[in-house]
C-alpha cells in the first residue's frame, strides 16, 4: 500500500458528502477540489461515500478527518489534529462509504486515499453543533449589555458558525450584533451565522485590520435583507456576485476600511457602491455595460451605449458620485479624451517615449482677443519647456496622481526621488494602501510618503537599499524606473503590447545593468520608453517629467486610463 505524507493517495475520486438529518449533499469531481461550501448543522453524524473508478474490489480506502485543516494542503500538515481515522474496502464497482460523528463545532478537512490513485482527495467542511448554537444564540438574545454579548461570541465563536474571522475587538462585534438581533426571539445557524460572521468582518474593516476581502466573498454576499427573521438592509448583495473578482475584492477592501459602519445595512449600501465603482474601474467594456444595466436606476442611466461604456473604462472614478456625475455630464457618449493633448507632440530631449501623441482632456482655451489665436493654458507655469511631457503632466495632475513643488511650479527637470515615485505608482495604478508595518527605519509613520512606500514595498515594486533603510530622498535612475514599472505591471497582472519586430538595441547597451535589461527593452518594445537619440543613458537620474510620461504611457498601454 502506497503512502504519501502519512496518508494513502487518491486522485479524481467522486465524493458524495451527506448530512443525515437535514440532508445536505455535494460532489467534488476534480482533483483536490473541495466539495462545495459545505456547512453541516446537526448532532454530528456525517456520511462520506464515493467511487474510486479504477479501483479493484477489496482495495483499501483510508479516511482521515482533521480539525482546523489547511485548505491549501493535500496532505496532513503540522498543527492539524486528527479527530477520526478509519479504513474501508471498495466493492466490485469501486464504491466506498464512511459514517462518523463529530462532537465539536469547527472547520474540518477529510483526506481520502486509495491505492488506485496518485494523490489524496480532500474535502473541506464546516460543522455546527445545533444544540450548542441554540444555547449560545439564546444567551446572546437574553443578554442586556454589549460586554456580555462580546463574552458569548468570543467563547462560542465556532458554535455560532464564526469560522473565517478572528476579531480582536469583540466589543465592536457585539455592538453590531446587539443592533442586528434586537427584537428577535430565535436565531438560525444558516442566515444568522452569516450575519455574525459579517459583523466580525465589518468590525475588522472599521479597525483597519484587513488587507484583502478574498476570504470573505461568501460572507459579503449575505445581506440582512435575506434574513427571514428580520433585517433592515434594502440591498440585494447577490446581484453583484459576478463582479466580486479577486481584483475587486482587494480594491474595495481599501475603500471600505476605517469607515466606522454602525450597522450591516449601512455597510451593505457602501459595499454595493464600492463594488460598482471598482467593477467599472477594473472592468472591460462588456463589464461596464453589465454594471450599467444591473444598476441603471441607482446610477441614473437613461441610455446605455457602447461608446458610453467604452469611455467609462478609460476613466478612474473615485466614488459612486463621480460615476453618476460622469453619466449625467453632457456628451458622455462621445469619444472622451480623443482630441489630443497640447504639447504632447514634438520635442525631444531625455524623454521616455517623447514623440508619441496620446488622447486626453485638451488643455487649450480660445483667446477671445483674437478668434484665430489659441493660447495654451498649462496646469503649471514651468512645463512649457518640456512639451513632450505636457499631456502626461496635465492628465496625471487632473487625476490627483501628481503634485507640484510650489505654487504653479512642477519642476519637470528635477530628479524624482524614491518616495515621490512610490506615490506616483500607488496613485496612478490605484494600489490599495495596505495597512501593515513598514520595516524601514528612515521612514516615519507621520511622513506623507509612509503609506505609499509601505504599499509599494509590500506589493514588491520597490525594495529598500538595506533590510532596514528605504533610501529616503535618494534619486532614481532611468533603468531602475523601468524595473519598477515592470514590477508594477506584474503586481497588477497587467500586460503591454510588444512590437516583436522592433529589434531595439541602444548604443549604450553595455551600460545597462543586467538586472534591468529585460525591463528596459520590454518597455521600449511596448513604446513606453525611448532613449536620448541612440543611447538610453540608464544610469542618469530620471526626471519628474520623464516619470510622468512613463506612468502615463503605462496606464494607456494597459488600458488603465
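^ C-alpha cells above, recovered residues below v
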Amino acid at each position: 500500500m502506497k503512502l504519501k505524507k502519512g496518508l494513502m493517495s487518491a486522485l479524481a475520486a467522486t465524493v458524495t458528502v451527506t448530512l443525515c438529518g437535514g440532508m445536505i449533499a455535494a460532489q467534488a469531481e476534480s482533483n483536490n477540489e473541495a466539495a462545495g461550501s459545505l456547512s453541516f448543522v446537526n448532532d454530528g453524524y456525517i456520511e462520506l461515500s464515493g467511487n474510486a473508478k479504477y479501483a479493484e474490489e477489496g482495495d483499501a480506502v483510508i479516511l482521515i478527518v482533521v480539525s482546523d485543516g489547511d485548505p491549501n494542503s493535500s496532505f496532513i500538515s503540522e498543527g492539524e489534529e486528527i479527530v477520526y481515522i478509519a479504513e474501508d474496502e471498495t466493492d466490485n464497482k469501486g464504491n466506498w462509504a464512511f459514517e462518523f460523528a463529530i462532537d465539536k463545532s469547527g472547520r474540518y478537512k477529510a483526506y481520502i486515499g486509495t491505492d488506485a490513485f496518485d494523490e489524496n482527495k480532500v474535502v473541506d467542511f464546516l460543522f455546527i453543533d445545533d444544540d450548542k448554537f441554540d444555547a449560545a444564540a439564546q444567551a446572546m438574545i437574553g443578554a442586556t449589555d454589549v460586554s456580555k454579548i462580546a463574552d458569548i461570541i468570543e467563547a462560542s465563536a465556532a458554535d455560532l458558525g464564526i469560522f473565517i474571522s478572528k476579531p480582536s475587538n469583540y466589543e465592536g462585534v457585539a455592538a453590531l450584533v446587539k443592533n442586528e438581533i434586537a427584537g428577535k426571539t430565535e436565531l438560525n445557524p444558516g442566515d444568522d451565522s452569516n450575519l455574525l460572521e459579517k459583523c466580525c468582518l465589518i468590525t475588522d474593516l472599521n479597525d483597519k485590520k484587513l488587507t484583502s476581502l478574498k476570504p470573505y466573498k461568501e460572507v459579503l454576499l449575505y445581506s440582512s435583507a435575506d434574513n427571514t427573521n428580520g433585517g433592515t438592509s434594502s440591498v440585494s448583495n447577490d446581484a453583484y456576485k459576478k463582479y466580486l473578482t479577486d481584483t475587486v475584492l482587494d480594491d474595495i477592501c481599501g475603500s471600505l476600511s476605517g469607515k466606522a459602519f454602525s450597522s450591516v445595512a449601512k455597510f451593505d449600501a457602501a459595499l454595493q457602491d464600492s463594488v460598482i465603482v471598482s467593477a467599472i474601474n477594473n472592468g472591460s467594456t462588456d463589464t461596464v455595460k453589465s454594471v450599467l444595466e444591473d444598476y441603471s436606476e441607482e446610477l441614473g442611466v437613461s441610455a446605455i451605449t457602447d461608446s458610453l461604456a467604452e469611455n467609462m473604462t478609460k476613466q478612474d472614478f473615485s466614488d459612486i458620485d463621480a460615476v453618476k456625475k460622469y453619466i449625467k455630464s453632457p456628451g458622455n457618449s462621445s469619444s472622451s479624451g480623443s482630441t489630443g493633448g497640447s504639447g504632447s507632440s514634438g520635442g525631444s530631449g531625455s524623454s521616455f517615449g517623447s514623440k508619441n501623441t496620446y488622447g486626453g482632456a485638451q488643455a487649450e482655451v480660445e483667446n477671445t482677443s483674437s478668434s484665430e489665436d489659441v493660447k495654451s493654458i498649462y496646469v503649471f507655469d514651468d512645463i512649457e519647456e518640456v512639451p513632450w511631457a505636457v499631456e502626461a503632466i496635465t492628465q496625471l495632475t487632473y487625476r490627483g496622481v501628481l503634485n507640484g513643488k510650489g505654487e504653479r511650479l512642477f519642476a519637470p527637470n528635477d530628479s524624482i526621488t524614491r518616495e515621490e515615485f512610490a506615490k506616483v505608482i500607488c496613485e496612478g495604478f490605484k494600489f490599495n494602501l495596505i495597512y501593515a508595518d513598514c520595516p524601514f527605519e528612515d521612514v516615519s509613520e507621520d511622513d506623507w510618503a509612509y503609506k505609499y512606500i509601505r504599499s509599494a514595498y509590500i506589493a514588491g515594486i520597490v525594495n529598500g537599499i538595506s533590510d532596514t533603510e528605504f533610501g529616503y530622498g535618494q534619486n532614481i535612475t532611468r533603468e531602475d524606473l523601468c524595473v519598477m514599472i515592470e514590477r508594477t505591471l506584474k503586481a497588477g497582472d497587467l500586460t503591454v503590447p510588444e512590437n516583436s519586430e522592433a529589434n531595439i538595441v541602444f548604443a549604450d547597451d553595455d551600460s545597462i545593468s543586467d538586472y534591468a535589461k529585460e525591463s528596459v527593452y520590454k518597455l521600449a518594445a511596448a513604446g513606453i520608453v525611448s532613449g536620448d537619440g541612440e543611447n538610453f543613458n540608464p544610469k542618469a537620474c530620471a526626471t519628474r517629467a520623464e516619470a510622468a510620461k512613463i506612468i502615463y504611457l503605462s496606464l494607456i498601454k494597459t488600458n488603465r486610463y
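Residues 143-256 form one domain.
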